[in-house]
Amino acid sequence: MATDPQASAVPTSDGRRPAFTLIVVLLGMLTLPMAMSGTTVALPRIGADLDASGAALQWVVVGYFLAASSFMLVAGALGDLYGRRRILTIGAAIYTAGTLASALVQHILLLDAARALSGIGAAGVMASGGSLLAATFTGPARTRVFALLGTTAGLGLAFGPTFSGWLVDALGWRATFLSYVAVGTVILIGTRLMSESRAETRPRVDKAGAATFIAGLALALFAITQGSKSGWTSPATLLPATLALALLLTFVRVEQRITRTGRGRPILDLGLARNPAFLGWAVGSFGLGAGTTGALTFLPTYLQGVNGTTAGAAGLTLLLMTVPVLALPPLGARLVNRGVPARHLLVLSLLLIAAGNAWLTTLHPGITAGALAGPLLTIGTGQGLSIGIIDAQAMSMVAPSEVGMASGFLNTVRGGTGAVMLTVFGALLLASVEPRIGSSRAAAQVTAGTGGHAPEFTAAWHLTLWTVTVLMTALAALAYALLAPKGKRSPATHTPRPETPSFTKAPSAAPR
Fold first, then answer.
1. Nearest one of 217, 27, 281, 35 to 132, comparing CA atoms
2. What is the pLDDT of residues 34-92, one digit of tens each?
3. What does the DSSP 8-state code read for residue 499?
4. Which residue ranges of the chain lie beneath pLDDT 50?
5. Which of 80, 223, 260, 321 could cysteine-pair with 380, CB 3.0–4.6 Å?
6. What are φ and ψ of residue 419, in 5° steps?
């Protein structure tokens, strides 16, 4: 059984430190969603300025997600071993440097590289931030704090497009990145006011696991992006996919050996994947991202390319989807603390997102913000209700010394979802537009928001949205099954190791 989560934290002598920790982590969770959602609004302007379209332009966003998701799990595990504040500090420094480079580069490939560097830094900030809060707060306070975390992330999502749209229209897209540099600098300074937290013991670092996981996941995500560009059977896709599979299988064997021998600590306790409840919350995290990333990223491009909407107006329209993500996390946490089954809330969220995507198939050239209000509000409501409860529920099932690992795993799921859905959503649009207009180059330009071929672009949107709707419905059913009470499903097969237990069966946090 796990002990109090604070037991693994380094004691502090300054009573203000928990408040400072919360403030700095929240600032990071405000900025990183803004850097994602805000950048999507700027893509058409970036493409025009740097003469870029298609995959090279989408990698401004995809590269950020790919790098972040590849390093998230490792960053969380290293935080447990070397200090969560230390990893957060390093991550903030890398994020700030990469974002500064993004504001200064003059070529699309250099911008892609700078954004990938920013993603590596973001991995350290997000994984360490969540684990610091899990190690600092417990019980109902933890649920409230993570709800506040969800609210803050929602604030970033809500105002990222609007804020960036205003800056892009007034000062250009580079000003958007410079604003994130300023906030990153504040986070970096703020980490000096935080208390350190780490696992009580520091076993040998799992270097082989870290290397194989980072390389394997990065190559897998790269293969997915290449498949949408070069074809799924091309050597450019099959080679990285094969290498990724080999590396990830090696990673599994490495982790199994470390767990079996007890020599060192694995980057990922594979028992997490055998705990149905923890896996259910991970599926829920994937679903929240899978159902919203496409619309959040590509709808501004549609509105600017088809309707001639300005970047600022497109950002304002997205408030219909992102404001509920700002307002509803406290409600979700309050409902759970008052006895509403958390799994029911999650399943409801996934079904609302499915319904919102189906409703969004009413999209057509000339559509007004009023006509978009219903579907976007439905999608945002679904995400907002559960975004603040997933981490608190999932991390209540792991030992205090492994909250960094659990946080890293959940954020890997989120980052991987973003990278995959950006690629898949964009690939579906491109694959649907190209045969309709008969030109791959023209299709890339249309999906980049340059305008023209509005009926074909709209038809591609409808097909893609129905695909997302089916996926979300299936994920809702899967999450419901995994989070079913123990008497209605097979028990977990994982037995925690005595010296580093993987789960705690806390009655107050168990899914109902």
1. 27
2. 776 678 778 888 888 888 876 678 788 878 877 877 787 778 778 877 788 888 899 99
3. S
4. 1-16, 489-512
5. 321
6. -65, -45
| Cα four-point dihedral sign 483, 297, 24, 91 | positive
Task: Provide the pLDDT for residue 10.
Answer: 36
Say if residues 217 and 70 touch (Cβ distance below 8 Å). Answer: yes
**CB of 22 closer than 8 Å to CB of 191:** no
- Total number of residues shown for the chain: 512
SS3 231: coil
Rounded CA gap, 208 and 265, in Å?
11
- List the one residue out of 166, 444, 172, 103 whose CA is nearest residue 310: 166
Encode pLDDT of 401-442 as tens digits.
666 677 777 777 776 776 677 777 877 888 788 888 877 778
Q: Which residues contact 10 (CB under 8 A, 6 or more apart)?
A: 83, 195, 196, 197, 198
Residue 130 near residue 149, CB atoms below 8 Å: yes
Are the CB atoms for 415 and 433 separated by under 8 Å?
no
Closest by CA position to 362, among listed 350, 378, 349: 378
pTM beyond 0.85, yes or no: no
Compute the distance between CA of residue 475 and CA of residue 466 in angstroms, rounded to an integer: 14
Inter-CA distances, 52 with 48, 111, 169, 441, Å: 7, 11, 19, 12
